[in-house]
Amino acid sequence: MQKGELLYEGKAKKVYRTDDPDTYLVEFKDDATAFNGQKKGTIRDKGELNNKISTRLFRLLEKEGIATHLVEQISDREMLVKALEIIPVEVVVRNIAAGSLAKRLGLAEGTPVARTVVEYYYKSDELGDPLINDDHIAAMNLAGASEMAAIRKTALAVNDFLRRYMDERNLILVDFKLEFGRHKGRILLGDEISPDTCRFWDKQSREKLDKDRFRRDLGGVEEAYQEIWKRLGEN
Ligand code: C5P
């Protein structure tokens, strides 16, 4: 598979065309940003770890009947994926109040929510990814109502599976972000699932094992990402 034109460079990934128009190549970088790009840094080996972690989780989700963009991992930092037309909506699923939900609703971090919360954010660096609802999505023609119904259902199914899977590995799945796209008339789960895009806490100590260590200068960032891979790698 030939690496072609660079299509897009994001904060943590680059996406290239390949010689197959239906397949893109994703390269995971060590660069990390937070607070809409205001904080910048690098996390050693993050690209490699997020590639491995995402590949593992996408494979497991495929086994559960959830369609993802994963084709295969082709090197330490590279993954082949189905070429998606990305829907510019970030889908956040929350089991426990943390981050922006804790702040918005005045809840103490760590408060469990009585019902799983699904939120949508409009993917726009310029606007700082504002929180939106189904009406905004329809008003801006970002996705159809049946597409959003399928996305919500899939996001909840991902949560059901991942929450259980992480629990068996002594991890609490606090919240996470998903992205979806269109491919040959189907909606597929895209992007990545990694400590960059999820909050994982150790079940006993409630130690943070995710990007919050970078966001909040807690130290031990690389070690946290390694620990997640270690717990997943042990099946
Ligand atoms: O910051 P906030 O609490 O809204 O984040 C919720 C979840 O979504 C966290 O797991 C965070 O890592 C993830 N997220 C992300 N990309 C963003 C915003 C949030 O992966 N642009």
TrEMBL record:
Domain SAICAR synthetase/ADE2 N-terminal: 6-231
Catalysed reaction, written as an equation: 5-amino-1-(5-phospho-D-ribosyl)imidazole-4-carboxylate + L-aspartate + ATP = (2S)-2-[5-amino-1-(5-phospho-beta-D-ribosyl)imidazole-4-carboxamido]succinate + ADP + phosphate + 2 H(+)
Biological pathway: Purine metabolism; IMP biosynthesis via de novo pathway; 5-amino-1-(5-phospho-D-ribosyl)imidazole-4-carboxamide from 5-amino-1-(5-phospho-D-ribosyl)imidazole-4-carboxylate: step 1/2
Keyword line: ATP-binding, Ligase, Nucleotide-binding, Purine biosynthesis
BP GO annotations: 'de novo' IMP biosynthetic process; cobalamin biosynthetic process
Record-linked Gene3D superfamilies: ATP-grasp fold, B domain, Phosphorylase Kinase, domain 1
E.C. designation(s): 6.3.2.6
Gene Ontology MF: a single term: phosphoribosylaminoimidazolesuccinocarboxamide synthase activity
HAMAP family: SAICAR_synth (MF_00137)
PANTHER family: MULTIFUNCTIONAL PROTEIN ADE2, SI:DKEY-6E2.2
Family, per entry: Belongs to the SAICAR synthetase family.
Annotated protein name in UniProt: Phosphoribosylaminoimidazole-succinocarboxamide synthase
Lineage: Bacteria, Bacillati, Bacillota, Clostridia, Eubacteriales
